[in-house]
Protein backbone atom coordinates (compact mmCIF):
# COMPACT_ATOMS: atom_id res chain seq x y z
CA UNK A 1 0.00 0.00 0.00
CA UNK A 2 1.15 3.58 -0.46
CA UNK A 3 1.01 5.98 2.43
CA UNK A 4 -0.54 8.79 0.42
CA UNK A 5 -3.70 6.69 0.59
CA UNK A 6 -3.83 6.96 4.35
CA UNK A 7 -5.97 10.11 4.39
CA UNK A 8 -7.76 9.40 3.18
CA UNK A 9 -8.67 6.01 2.02
CA UNK A 10 -10.23 4.61 4.95
CA UNK A 11 -11.10 7.76 5.24
CA UNK A 12 -12.35 9.61 4.47
CA UNK A 13 -14.74 10.17 6.85
CA UNK A 14 -17.40 9.53 4.23
CA UNK A 15 -15.85 6.63 2.42
CA UNK A 16 -16.49 2.94 2.82
CA UNK A 17 -14.67 -0.10 1.55
CA UNK A 18 -17.88 -1.55 0.23
CA UNK A 19 -20.88 -0.01 -1.49
CA UNK A 20 -24.46 0.07 -0.28
CA UNK A 21 -27.38 0.37 -2.65
CA UNK A 22 -30.69 0.24 -0.83
CA UNK A 23 -30.29 -0.07 2.93
CA UNK A 24 -32.57 0.90 5.80
CA UNK A 25 -31.19 2.70 8.83
CA UNK A 26 -32.66 3.70 12.17
CA UNK A 27 -32.10 7.27 13.30
CA UNK A 28 -32.07 8.37 16.91
CA UNK A 29 -35.57 9.80 16.56
CA UNK A 30 -36.75 6.37 15.36
CA UNK A 31 -37.70 7.77 11.96
CA UNK A 32 -37.31 4.92 9.48
CA UNK A 33 -35.55 6.22 6.38
CA UNK A 34 -35.07 4.45 3.08
CA UNK A 35 -31.69 5.42 1.69
CA UNK A 36 -31.63 4.84 -2.03
CA UNK A 37 -29.37 5.75 -4.91
CA UNK A 38 -30.47 8.90 -6.70
CA UNK A 39 -28.93 10.30 -9.86
CA UNK A 40 -28.09 13.81 -11.01
CA UNK A 41 -27.18 14.72 -14.59
CA UNK A 42 -23.80 16.41 -14.24
CA UNK A 43 -21.52 18.22 -16.69
CA UNK A 44 -18.27 16.48 -17.60
CA UNK A 45 -16.18 19.64 -17.97
CA UNK A 46 -17.40 22.76 -16.20
CA UNK A 47 -14.63 24.91 -17.65
CA UNK A 48 -15.21 24.35 -21.34
CA UNK A 49 -18.53 25.72 -22.53
CA UNK A 50 -18.14 23.96 -25.87
CA UNK A 51 -18.05 20.55 -24.16
CA UNK A 52 -21.68 19.52 -23.70
CA UNK A 53 -21.03 15.97 -22.48
CA UNK A 54 -22.86 14.88 -19.32
CA UNK A 55 -22.89 11.88 -16.98
CA UNK A 56 -24.91 10.59 -14.02
CA UNK A 57 -23.65 11.42 -10.51
CA UNK A 58 -24.95 9.58 -7.47
CA UNK A 59 -26.42 11.37 -4.49
CA UNK A 60 -28.49 10.59 -1.38
CA UNK A 61 -31.26 12.52 0.33
CA UNK A 62 -32.91 12.46 3.75
CA UNK A 63 -35.85 14.84 4.08
CA UNK A 64 -37.22 13.35 7.31
CA UNK A 65 -36.43 16.45 9.38
CA UNK A 66 -36.83 19.08 6.67
CA UNK A 67 -39.14 22.04 7.08
CA UNK A 68 -39.47 25.15 4.97
CA UNK A 69 -37.66 27.44 7.43
CA UNK A 70 -34.72 25.10 7.96
CA UNK A 71 -31.34 25.07 6.20
CA UNK A 72 -30.06 22.62 3.61
CA UNK A 73 -27.14 20.45 4.74
CA UNK A 74 -24.86 19.19 1.98
CA UNK A 75 -22.34 16.49 2.89
CA UNK A 76 -19.48 16.32 0.40
CA UNK A 77 -18.31 12.89 -0.74
CA UNK A 78 -14.64 11.98 -0.73
CA UNK A 79 -12.10 9.60 -2.21
CA UNK A 80 -14.17 6.46 -1.93
CA UNK A 81 -17.69 5.17 -2.36
CA UNK A 82 -20.25 7.37 -0.60
CA UNK A 83 -21.70 5.56 2.42
CA UNK A 84 -25.47 6.02 2.85
CA UNK A 85 -25.10 5.22 6.55
CA UNK A 86 -24.18 8.87 6.95
CA UNK A 87 -27.70 9.82 5.89
CA UNK A 88 -29.09 8.68 9.24
CA UNK A 89 -26.12 8.83 11.60
CA UNK A 90 -23.41 11.25 12.59
CA UNK A 91 -23.16 14.68 14.15
CA UNK A 92 -24.67 16.47 11.16
CA UNK A 93 -27.82 14.35 11.45
CA UNK A 94 -28.13 15.35 15.11
CA UNK A 95 -27.91 18.98 14.01
CA UNK A 96 -30.40 18.39 11.17
CA UNK A 97 -33.03 16.97 13.56
CA UNK A 98 -32.76 20.07 15.75
CA UNK A 99 -32.63 22.58 12.90
CA UNK A 100 -35.15 21.10 10.47
CA UNK A 101 -32.55 20.62 7.76
CA UNK A 102 -32.85 18.82 4.45
CA UNK A 103 -29.83 16.49 4.16
CA UNK A 104 -28.07 15.76 0.86
CA UNK A 105 -24.86 13.87 0.12
CA UNK A 106 -23.18 14.17 -3.29
CA UNK A 107 -20.69 11.47 -4.25
CA UNK A 108 -17.37 12.74 -5.61
CA UNK A 109 -16.78 12.33 -9.34
CA UNK A 110 -14.71 9.25 -10.27
CA UNK A 111 -15.45 7.50 -6.95
CA UNK A 112 -18.06 4.95 -5.96
CA UNK A 113 -20.69 4.67 -8.69
CA UNK A 114 -20.09 8.17 -10.05
CA UNK A 115 -18.29 7.37 -13.31
CA UNK A 116 -17.94 10.37 -15.64
CA UNK A 117 -15.93 8.46 -18.27
CA UNK A 118 -15.80 4.95 -19.71
CA UNK A 119 -12.57 4.16 -17.82
CA UNK A 120 -9.79 5.75 -15.77
CA UNK A 121 -7.08 6.15 -18.39
CA UNK A 122 -4.81 9.15 -17.86
CA UNK A 123 -6.57 11.06 -20.64
CA UNK A 124 -9.87 10.71 -18.76
CA UNK A 125 -8.42 11.41 -15.32
CA UNK A 126 -7.78 15.00 -16.41
CA UNK A 127 -11.45 15.53 -15.50
CA UNK A 128 -10.68 14.47 -11.91
CA UNK A 129 -9.76 17.50 -9.85
CA UNK A 130 -10.90 19.41 -6.80
CA UNK A 131 -11.90 22.33 -9.04
CA UNK A 132 -14.21 20.13 -11.13
CA UNK A 133 -15.59 18.64 -7.89
CA UNK A 134 -16.41 22.10 -6.52
CA UNK A 135 -18.12 23.01 -9.77
CA UNK A 136 -20.11 19.76 -9.47
CA UNK A 137 -21.35 20.98 -6.10
CA UNK A 138 -22.28 24.38 -7.50
CA UNK A 139 -24.25 22.96 -10.42
CA UNK A 140 -25.91 20.39 -8.14
CA UNK A 141 -26.96 23.07 -5.66
CA UNK A 142 -28.28 25.39 -8.37
CA UNK A 143 -30.37 22.72 -10.07
CA UNK A 144 -31.63 21.10 -6.84
CA UNK A 145 -32.67 24.45 -5.40
CA UNK A 146 -35.00 24.94 -8.36
CA UNK A 147 -36.07 21.30 -8.66
CA UNK A 148 -37.00 20.94 -4.98
CA UNK A 149 -38.34 24.46 -4.60
CA UNK A 150 -35.84 25.34 -1.86
CA UNK A 151 -36.06 29.07 -2.44
CA UNK A 152 -33.79 31.07 -0.13
CA UNK A 153 -32.98 28.29 2.32
CA UNK A 154 -29.35 28.58 3.40
CA UNK A 155 -26.92 25.82 2.42
CA UNK A 156 -24.37 24.54 4.96
CA UNK A 157 -21.64 22.25 3.63
CA UNK A 158 -19.96 19.52 5.66
CA UNK A 159 -16.89 17.43 4.95
CA UNK A 160 -14.07 15.60 6.65
CA UNK A 161 -10.43 15.27 5.56
CA UNK A 162 -10.20 15.89 1.79
CA UNK A 163 -13.97 16.62 1.67
CA UNK A 164 -13.27 18.97 4.59
CA UNK A 165 -10.94 20.87 2.26
CA UNK A 166 -13.68 20.88 -0.36
CA UNK A 167 -16.16 22.26 2.18
CA UNK A 168 -13.86 25.18 3.04
CA UNK A 169 -12.94 25.79 -0.60
CA UNK A 170 -16.60 25.69 -1.67
CA UNK A 171 -17.38 28.46 0.80
CA UNK A 172 -14.30 30.40 -0.42
CA UNK A 173 -14.92 29.96 -4.15
CA UNK A 174 -18.74 29.98 -4.19
CA UNK A 175 -19.75 32.32 -1.33
CA UNK A 176 -23.03 33.13 -3.10
CA UNK A 177 -24.02 29.46 -2.78
CA UNK A 178 -22.47 28.14 0.45
CA UNK A 179 -23.63 30.09 3.49
CA UNK A 180 -21.27 28.33 5.91
CA UNK A 181 -18.93 25.35 6.06
CA UNK A 182 -17.80 22.78 8.63
CA UNK A 183 -14.37 21.60 7.47
CA UNK A 184 -13.37 18.76 9.79
CA UNK A 185 -9.73 17.58 9.82
CA UNK A 186 -9.11 19.48 6.60
CA UNK A 187 -5.46 19.57 5.38
CA UNK A 188 -6.00 22.74 3.36
CA UNK A 189 -2.29 23.44 2.84
CA UNK A 190 -0.94 21.26 0.02
CA UNK A 191 2.68 20.22 0.50
CA UNK A 192 5.13 18.04 -1.41
CA UNK A 193 6.96 16.38 1.46
CA UNK A 194 4.59 15.83 4.38
CA UNK A 195 7.32 14.50 6.68
CA UNK A 196 5.56 16.20 9.60
CA UNK A 197 2.96 13.44 9.46
CA UNK A 198 5.33 11.02 11.18
CA UNK A 199 6.50 13.72 13.59
CA UNK A 200 2.92 13.87 14.88
CA UNK A 201 2.78 10.06 14.98
CA UNK A 202 5.81 10.19 17.29
CA UNK A 203 4.23 12.88 19.47
CA UNK A 204 0.91 11.04 19.69
CA UNK A 205 2.58 7.78 20.67
CA UNK A 206 4.55 9.68 23.32
CA UNK A 207 1.34 11.03 24.84
CA UNK A 208 0.59 7.49 26.00
CA UNK A 209 4.06 6.36 27.05
CA UNK A 210 7.07 8.60 26.53
CA UNK A 211 9.34 5.70 25.59
CA UNK A 212 6.86 4.01 23.22
CA UNK A 213 8.13 5.53 19.95
CA UNK A 214 11.72 4.84 21.03
CA UNK A 215 10.93 1.15 21.41
CA UNK A 216 9.27 1.11 18.00
CA UNK A 217 12.38 2.72 16.51
CA UNK A 218 14.61 0.05 18.03
CA UNK A 219 12.35 -2.64 16.59
CA UNK A 220 12.20 -1.02 13.16
CA UNK A 221 15.98 -0.60 13.09
CA UNK A 222 16.34 -4.28 13.98
CA UNK A 223 14.14 -5.17 11.03
CA UNK A 224 16.36 -3.02 8.80
CA UNK A 225 19.43 -4.89 10.04
CA UNK A 226 17.77 -8.22 9.28
CA UNK A 227 16.95 -6.99 5.79
CA UNK A 228 20.66 -6.49 5.08
CA UNK A 229 20.95 -10.25 4.58
CA UNK A 230 18.83 -12.25 2.14
CA UNK A 231 18.95 -15.31 4.38
CA UNK A 232 16.65 -13.41 6.78
CA UNK A 233 13.93 -12.81 4.18
CA UNK A 234 12.08 -16.03 4.99
CA UNK A 235 12.06 -15.21 8.71
CA UNK A 236 10.71 -11.71 8.04
CA UNK A 237 8.06 -13.14 5.71
CA UNK A 238 6.88 -15.53 8.42
CA UNK A 239 7.12 -13.00 11.25
CA UNK A 240 4.91 -10.45 9.49
CA UNK A 241 2.63 -12.90 7.63
CA UNK A 242 3.60 -11.57 4.22
CA UNK A 243 1.46 -12.89 1.37
CA UNK A 244 4.55 -14.09 -0.48
CA UNK A 245 8.13 -14.85 0.51
CA UNK A 246 9.94 -11.54 0.44
CA UNK A 247 11.89 -10.62 -2.68
CA UNK A 248 13.85 -7.36 -2.83
CA UNK A 249 14.92 -6.42 -6.36
CA UNK A 250 15.20 -2.64 -6.04
CA UNK A 251 15.12 0.35 -3.71
CA UNK A 252 11.43 0.70 -4.51
CA UNK A 253 10.77 -2.88 -3.35
CA UNK A 254 12.52 -2.15 -0.06
CA UNK A 255 10.79 1.19 0.46
CA UNK A 256 7.37 -0.31 -0.28
CA UNK A 257 7.90 -3.03 2.34
CA UNK A 258 8.98 -0.55 5.01
CA UNK A 259 6.20 1.90 4.15
CA UNK A 260 3.58 -0.85 4.28
CA UNK A 261 4.68 -2.06 7.71
CA UNK A 262 4.91 1.48 9.10
CA UNK A 263 1.41 2.26 7.83
CA UNK A 264 -0.09 -0.17 10.32
CA UNK A 265 1.13 2.10 13.13
CA UNK A 266 0.25 5.27 11.24
CA UNK A 267 -3.30 4.03 10.76
CA UNK A 268 -3.75 3.28 14.47
CA UNK A 269 -2.61 6.78 15.42
CA UNK A 270 -4.69 8.59 12.80
CA UNK A 271 -7.91 6.84 13.81
CA UNK A 272 -7.12 6.28 17.49
CA UNK A 273 -10.19 5.33 19.52
CA UNK A 274 -12.65 6.81 17.03
CA UNK A 275 -16.19 5.66 16.31
CA UNK A 276 -16.01 4.30 12.76
CA UNK A 277 -17.65 1.01 13.71
CA UNK A 278 -21.01 2.04 12.27
CA UNK A 279 -19.32 2.27 8.85
CA UNK A 280 -18.23 -1.35 9.09
CA UNK A 281 -14.55 -0.50 9.59
CA UNK A 282 -12.48 -3.28 11.16
CA UNK A 283 -9.61 -2.83 13.60
CA UNK A 284 -10.87 0.10 15.63
CA UNK A 285 -10.29 -1.83 18.86
CA UNK A 286 -6.53 -1.48 18.37
CA UNK A 287 -5.50 1.87 19.84
CA UNK A 288 -2.32 3.75 20.73
CA UNK A 289 -2.74 2.30 24.22
CA UNK A 290 -2.81 -1.22 22.75
CA UNK A 291 0.34 -0.61 20.70
CA UNK A 292 2.32 0.90 23.54
CA UNK A 293 1.22 -1.76 26.03
CA UNK A 294 2.48 -4.50 23.71
CA UNK A 295 5.75 -2.62 23.14
CA UNK A 296 6.21 -2.59 26.94
CA UNK A 297 5.38 -6.28 27.39
CA UNK A 298 8.60 -7.78 28.74
CA UNK A 299 7.31 -11.33 28.38
CA UNK A 300 8.21 -10.84 24.73
CA UNK A 301 11.99 -10.91 24.64
CA UNK A 302 12.95 -8.04 22.34
CA UNK A 303 11.45 -4.83 20.94
CA UNK A 304 11.46 -6.55 17.53
CA UNK A 305 9.35 -9.44 18.88
CA UNK A 306 6.94 -6.96 20.44
CA UNK A 307 6.71 -5.00 17.20
CA UNK A 308 5.90 -8.19 15.30
CA UNK A 309 3.13 -8.85 17.84
CA UNK A 310 1.78 -5.31 17.34
CA UNK A 311 1.60 -5.70 13.57
CA UNK A 312 -0.02 -9.12 13.87
CA UNK A 313 -2.60 -7.80 16.33
CA UNK A 314 -3.55 -5.03 13.92
CA UNK A 315 -3.63 -7.40 10.94
CA UNK A 316 -5.92 -9.82 12.76
CA UNK A 317 -8.21 -7.02 13.95
CA UNK A 318 -8.55 -5.87 10.36
CA UNK A 319 -9.30 -9.48 9.35
CA UNK A 320 -6.49 -9.50 6.79
CA UNK A 321 -5.20 -12.96 5.87
CA UNK A 322 -1.73 -11.67 5.07
CA UNK A 323 0.21 -8.50 4.29
CA UNK A 324 0.80 -7.67 0.63
CA UNK A 325 4.26 -6.15 0.13
CA UNK A 326 4.90 -6.65 -3.59
CA UNK A 327 5.63 -3.32 -5.25
CA UNK A 328 5.26 -4.94 -8.67
CA UNK A 329 1.75 -6.15 -7.80
CA UNK A 330 0.86 -2.73 -6.39
CA UNK A 331 1.92 -0.98 -9.59
CA UNK A 332 0.14 -3.58 -11.72
CA UNK A 333 -3.09 -3.01 -9.79
CA UNK A 334 -2.78 0.77 -9.84
CA UNK A 335 -2.26 0.83 -13.61
CA UNK A 336 -5.58 -0.95 -14.21
CA UNK A 337 -7.88 1.62 -15.81
CA UNK A 338 -11.13 -0.35 -15.58
CA UNK A 339 -13.99 0.45 -13.22
CA UNK A 340 -13.97 -3.14 -11.95
CA UNK A 341 -10.19 -3.13 -11.46
CA UNK A 342 -8.39 -3.86 -8.16
CA UNK A 343 -7.68 -0.17 -7.45
CA UNK A 344 -10.97 1.25 -8.72
CA UNK A 345 -12.41 1.68 -5.22
CA UNK A 346 -10.27 4.79 -4.93
CA UNK A 347 -6.58 3.94 -5.00
CA UNK A 348 -5.86 4.86 -8.62
CA UNK A 349 -7.98 8.00 -8.46
CA UNK A 350 -6.65 9.35 -5.18
CA UNK A 351 -3.02 8.73 -6.10
CA UNK A 352 -3.65 10.71 -9.28
CA UNK A 353 -4.95 13.62 -7.21
CA UNK A 354 -1.92 13.55 -4.93
CA UNK A 355 0.38 13.58 -7.97
CA UNK A 356 -1.49 16.39 -9.75
CA UNK A 357 -2.84 18.57 -6.92
CA UNK A 358 -1.84 17.91 -3.34
CA UNK A 359 1.36 15.94 -2.75
CA UNK A 360 0.75 15.01 0.90
CA UNK A 361 3.56 12.43 0.56
CA UNK A 362 4.13 10.96 4.02
CA UNK A 363 7.87 10.34 3.86
CA UNK A 364 10.22 9.09 6.55
CA UNK A 365 12.66 11.97 5.91
CA UNK A 366 12.28 13.56 9.36
CA UNK A 367 14.73 12.43 12.04
CA UNK A 368 12.13 13.12 14.74
CA UNK A 369 10.19 9.87 14.32
CA UNK A 370 10.76 6.10 14.57
CA UNK A 371 10.65 4.98 10.92
CA UNK A 372 13.02 5.13 7.95
CA UNK A 373 13.50 3.85 4.44
CA UNK A 374 10.63 5.46 2.47
CA UNK A 375 11.91 8.89 1.39
CA UNK A 376 10.18 11.53 -0.70
CA UNK A 377 11.79 10.20 -3.88
CA UNK A 378 10.03 6.85 -3.35
CA UNK A 379 6.61 8.52 -3.28
CA UNK A 380 7.23 10.74 -6.29
CA UNK A 381 8.54 7.76 -8.27
CA UNK A 382 5.14 6.11 -7.87
CA UNK A 383 3.55 8.93 -9.89
CA UNK A 384 5.58 8.12 -13.00
CA UNK A 385 5.48 4.37 -12.41
CA UNK A 386 1.67 4.47 -12.41
CA UNK A 387 0.71 7.30 -14.77
CA UNK A 388 3.67 7.59 -17.13
CA UNK A 389 6.95 9.35 -17.74
CA UNK A 390 5.44 12.85 -17.73
CA UNK A 391 4.49 12.60 -14.05
CA UNK A 392 7.85 13.58 -12.61
CA UNK A 393 8.95 15.85 -9.77
CA UNK A 394 8.69 19.24 -11.59
CA UNK A 395 5.10 18.50 -12.61
CA UNK A 396 4.17 17.46 -9.08
CA UNK A 397 5.82 20.53 -7.53
CA UNK A 398 4.12 22.88 -9.99
CA UNK A 399 0.73 21.23 -9.40
CA UNK A 400 1.01 21.69 -5.64
CA UNK A 401 1.99 25.33 -6.08
CA UNK A 402 -1.05 25.89 -8.30
CA UNK A 403 -3.31 24.34 -5.66
CA UNK A 404 -2.09 26.70 -2.94
CA UNK A 405 -2.26 29.68 -5.31
CA UNK A 406 -5.84 28.79 -6.22
CA UNK A 407 -7.20 28.20 -2.72
CA UNK A 408 -4.82 30.22 -0.53
CA UNK A 409 -3.42 27.42 1.60
CA UNK A 410 -3.53 28.44 5.26
CA UNK A 411 -4.17 32.08 4.31
CA UNK A 412 -7.95 31.77 4.32
CA UNK A 413 -9.91 34.87 3.31
CA UNK A 414 -13.57 34.13 3.89
CA UNK A 415 -16.15 33.93 6.66
CA UNK A 416 -18.39 31.43 8.45
CA UNK A 417 -16.04 28.44 8.26
CA UNK A 418 -15.35 26.14 11.21
CA UNK A 419 -12.19 24.01 11.30
CA UNK A 420 -12.33 21.17 13.89
CA UNK A 421 -9.03 19.26 14.22
CA UNK A 422 -8.08 16.35 16.46
CA UNK A 423 -4.57 16.93 17.79
CA UNK A 424 -3.69 13.23 17.85
CA UNK A 425 -4.41 13.13 14.11
CA UNK A 426 -1.25 13.73 12.02
CA UNK A 427 -3.28 15.60 9.40
CA UNK A 428 -3.89 18.49 11.78
CA UNK A 429 -0.37 19.69 10.90
CA UNK A 430 -1.71 20.94 7.54
CA UNK A 431 -4.89 22.48 8.94
CA UNK A 432 -6.14 25.61 10.70
CA UNK A 433 -5.38 25.40 14.42
CA UNK A 434 -6.07 28.96 15.64
CA UNK A 435 -8.92 31.37 14.98
CA UNK A 436 -8.32 33.55 11.91
CA UNK A 437 -11.19 35.93 12.66
CA UNK A 438 -14.44 36.09 14.60
CA UNK A 439 -16.10 33.81 12.05
CA UNK A 440 -13.15 31.73 10.80
CA UNK A 441 -12.97 29.46 13.80
CA UNK A 442 -10.57 26.71 14.81
CA UNK A 443 -11.61 23.96 17.20
CA UNK A 444 -8.45 22.06 18.21
CA UNK A 445 -9.40 18.92 20.13
CA UNK A 446 -6.98 17.29 22.56
CA UNK A 447 -6.95 13.48 22.50
CA UNK A 448 -9.19 13.37 19.41
CA UNK A 449 -8.52 11.61 16.12
CA UNK A 450 -9.16 12.20 12.41
CA UNK A 451 -12.70 13.49 11.76
CA UNK A 452 -13.71 12.39 15.27
CA UNK A 453 -16.21 15.24 15.67
CA UNK A 454 -18.24 13.92 12.73
CA UNK A 455 -19.01 10.48 14.13
CA UNK A 456 -21.97 9.51 16.32
CA UNK A 457 -21.35 10.32 19.97
CA UNK A 458 -20.56 7.52 22.43
CA UNK A 459 -19.83 7.41 26.18
CA UNK A 460 -16.15 6.37 25.97
CA UNK A 461 -14.99 9.19 23.69
CA UNK A 462 -12.86 12.16 24.84
CA UNK A 463 -15.01 14.77 26.67
CA UNK A 464 -13.72 17.49 24.33
CA UNK A 465 -15.81 16.03 21.50
CA UNK A 466 -19.08 16.62 23.34
CA UNK A 467 -18.09 20.22 24.01
CA UNK A 468 -16.91 20.92 20.45
CA UNK A 469 -20.07 19.44 18.93
CA UNK A 470 -22.11 21.68 21.24
CA UNK A 471 -20.09 24.78 20.33
CA UNK A 472 -20.38 24.10 16.60
CA UNK A 473 -24.15 23.70 16.94
CA UNK A 474 -24.40 26.98 18.84
CA UNK A 475 -22.31 28.81 16.26
CA UNK A 476 -24.40 27.43 13.38
CA UNK A 477 -27.59 28.43 15.21
CA UNK A 478 -26.19 31.94 15.66
CA UNK A 479 -25.22 32.25 11.99
CA UNK A 480 -28.59 30.88 10.85
CA UNK A 481 -30.45 32.99 13.43
CA UNK A 482 -32.39 29.98 14.64
From TrEMBL:
Extent of the signal sequence: 1-19
Molecular function GO labels: dipeptidyl-peptidase activity; serine-type exopeptidase activity
GO biological process, one term: proteolysis
Keywords: Glycoprotein, Hydrolase, Protease, Signal
InterPro entries: AB_hydrolase_fold, Peptidase_S28, Ser_carbopepase_S28_SKS
Family note: Belongs to the peptidase S28 family.
PANTHER family to which the protein is assigned, alphabetical: PROTEASE S28 PRO-X CARBOXYPEPTIDASE-RELATED, SERINE PROTEASE 16
Protein name: Serine protease K12H4.7
